[in-house]
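> call design_seq(struct)
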């Protein structure tokens, strides 16, 4: 059973940083593409980043490129989303999910294909 648990959200001022964690069960990060999405109130879910060991690639949404960095701790089976230079428009609930495929090629479609979404972790960027 695939289980992903998000943590690390909080409140910061614009320009600040946060690091989110996505903890997975053993081998999940080896088998499946894992993505971060976010959703602000009244808006659709937006892709933030996706990691696929199968492809050997990490994808980023246009709005977070050069500010967010995805990394992996293989020992802890955890993906980290380092978010720097945060902006008010980064505010939202952040979710870590997988559609149980090995790649991220179609990750932009995951909001309509992924059935299970966790609680997410809240990020608020405000002065």
């Amino acid at each position: 059973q695939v289980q992903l648990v998000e943590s690390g959200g909080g409140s910061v001022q614009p320009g600040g940083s946060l690091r989110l964690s996505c903890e997975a069960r053993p081998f999940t990060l080896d088998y499946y593409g894992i993505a971060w999405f976010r959703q602000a109130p009244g808006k659709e879910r937006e892709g933030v980043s996706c990691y696929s060991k199968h492809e050997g690639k990490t994808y980023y949404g246009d709005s977070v490129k050069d500010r967010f960095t995805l990394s992996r701790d293989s020992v802890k089976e955890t993906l980290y989303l380092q978010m720097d230079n945060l902006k008010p428009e980064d505010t939202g609930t952040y979710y870590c999910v997988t559609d149980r495929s090995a790649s991220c090629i179609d990750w932009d479609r995951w909001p309509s294909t992924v059935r299970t979404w966790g609680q997410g972790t809240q990020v608020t960027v405000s002065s």
